[in-house]
Design goal:
With 107 residues, the chain is mainly α. The chain has one domain. 53% of the residues lie in helices and 0% in strands. It is built from five helices and no strands. Helix 2 crosses helix 4. The longest helix is centred in the middle third of the chain and has 17 residues.
């Protein structure tokens, strides 16, 4: 999970702006808060557990289940590395551009 957190924070994987709650999974009442605190704000499982009055292992279980479900449903996806920009076309010499303008608009 810590690897995924690092990848999220470095924008290497997508992360939903609205954190989904999977109702049929562990503690839907804590999922959104736990996921945001851990993945986005960098809190430890122990600190989250203390805040919500549950065991650290329970927070790890909630996060693990949420992560697995989010990946399965496509909420979290790899972001491909940026592709190099195609080479730009060379600009025309200014003399050529001037001749074109003079041909169409005599002085």
């Amino acid at each position: 999970m810590s690897e995924l957190r690092g990848r999220i924070r470095r924008n290497r994987v997508s992360f939903p702006s609205q954190v989904p709650v999977f109702a049929k999974h562990d503690r839907p009442d804590l999922q959104r808060k736990t996921v945001q605190l851990y993945f986005l704000f960098g809190w430890s499982c122990g600190r989250i557990a203390e805040r919500h009055g549950v065991l650290r292992q329970r927070i790890q279980q909630i996060l693990s289940t949420w992560k697995r479900r989010a990946i399965q449903t496509g909420y979290i996806q790899e972001i491909p590395p940026a592709q190099p920009a195609p080479p730009s076309r060379p600009s025309l010499p200014s003399a050529f551009a001037q001749n074109t303008v003079d041909r169409h608009y005599p002085a």
